[in-house]
Design goal:
Oligomer: single chain
Strand order of the largest sheet: 1-5-3-4-2
Largest sheet: 5 strands, mixed
Structural class: alpha/beta
Shape: elongated
Number of strands: 7
Number of domains: 2
Length: 269
């Protein structure tokens, strides 16, 4: 039986020694550099342990690094090093460079969802562009880098937003993110993945019955932490996932005082 393989393997990279002052980092898709990692490489610098970096040749004669920026930074800082071994490819544009970054790094646990999000945007990846469009419509955004300060309209829950779009649709996810950020405008931790999932579920299940304005008012009158506590109680009593328990707790609060147009995770009552 013939094994499956990719027939379009591209051009062979050229193996070169490249001056470190000719190497640039594109922050549109590259990961935030970790000074401790650079310090470690510098302290233990040894050519026998130094793996070639991956570079993309630029029209201006420089080279963009898409794998190995910490090695490059360490080489720059070393007084006896002025060039590094590299596998150099010729790519047509920044989108291809970002795609190469994703291809090299996707199977490495060091690539965090936020890093993958921005690399995906630069590469024109449909899923990441969809997340961006949904959040923009909601007046929200992904944090600019892993560990960046959170705000009421910022989230680092890339995976949760992506799942919400997949299972509940763009409209429900947009409504959920907008409602959360408007209900708790001073709560930097409001756009947590569990709240995005729970609200998206509710908006999806109750398209006709739900009032976004009422939901915003109901949530703004609640303390987010106390709502989480109520959800924990429901989860212990009824089981199910944490987002489902939270959705039930939100529905119960929303329905108080309503004789019609009540909502639930099963749909309108």
């Amino acid at each position: 039986m013939t094994e499956k393989f990719n027939p379009d393997i591209g051009q062979k990279p050229e193996l070169l020694w490249v001056p470190v002052d000719k190497i640039i980092v594109d922050n549109n898709y590259q990961r935030e550099i970790k000074p401790r990692r650079v310090t470690q490489i510098l302290r233990e610098f040894d050519w026998s342990k130094f793996q070639p970096v991956n570079l993309a040749e630029q029209a201006d004669g420089n080279y963009a690094v898409f794998d190995g920026q910490h090695r490059v930074a360490a080489a720059r800082a070393h007084p006896h090093v002025n060039e590094v071994p590299a596998a150099v490819v010729r790519l047509s544009d920044k989108r291809e460079e970002a795609g190469a970054f994703l291809g090299v790094n996707m199977n490495r646990t060091a690539v965090m969802p936020v890093e993958r999000y921005y690399a995906g945007l630069e590469a024109g990846e449909a899923g990441m562009m969809q997340i961006c469009a949904v959040l923009e419509e909601a007046g929200c955004e992904i944090v600019p880098y892993p560990g960046a300060p959170l705000k009421a309209n910022r989230t680092n829950a890339v995976s949760s937003v992506q799942r919400a779009i997949k299972y509940y649709g763009e409209g429900a996810t947009t409504a959920a993110c907008r409602t959360i950020s408007q209900a708790w405008p001073s709560d930097a931790n409001a756009l947590k993945g569990i709240f995005i999932s729970a609200l998206s579920m509710i908006f999806h299940k109750n398209k006709e019955a739900i009032s976004a304005e009422r939901m915003k008012t109901v949530l703004s009158d609640l303390d987010r932490r106390s709502l989480s506590t109520a959800a924990e109680t429901i989860k212990k009593l009824s089981g199910g996932s944490a987002p489902t328990a939270l959705a039930r707790a939100i529905c119960e609060t929303y329905n108080r005082g309503l004789s019609k147009n009540q909502i639930s995770i099963a749909g309108p009552q």
